[in-house]
Amino acid sequence: MKDFNINSHYETEHNAYGENLSENNRMKQITALRESLQKQHMMISRTCLSQELAIHASLVVAYKLAKHKPFSDGEFAKECMDAILKIICPEVEMRL
């Protein structure tokens, strides 16, 4: 965006913003807005990571299914679930 457009928007829409705030309150407002932005960024990053882990786990199971032909094997289903748990929740160690 061009500087002129940003300045024009600020002067017409937000000119009176912060006039009634003291310097201390203005710094608190800035700090709160920065923290809010960081929290939003972390939430988006966490969501992307969980989606990538789910995709990875589904691809691992699809690969195992392609290599293993009889689908009625209970031990094979346990093996697939164990692979999914290792990918999505590596800190949890469950034995099926």
Topology:
Layout: H1 3-13, H2 23-67, H3 74-88
Folded structure, characterized:
The protein is mainly α and 96 residues long. The protein has one domain. The chain has helices at 3-13, 23-67, 74-88. The radius of gyration is 26 Å and the shape is elongated. The N and C termini lie far apart (56 Å). The mean pLDDT is 80.
As a percent range, the share of helical residues equals: over 70%
Classify the beta-strand content into a percent band: under 5%
The domain tally reads: 1
The beta-strand count equals: 0
The biggest beta sheet is recorded as:
none
Give the overall shape, derived from the CA principal axes. elongated
Head-to-tail CA distance between termini? 56 Å
Quote the average pLDDT: 80
Q: Spans with pLDDT under 50 lasting ≥5 residues? A: none
Query: How many helical elements?
Result: 3
Structural class: mainly alpha
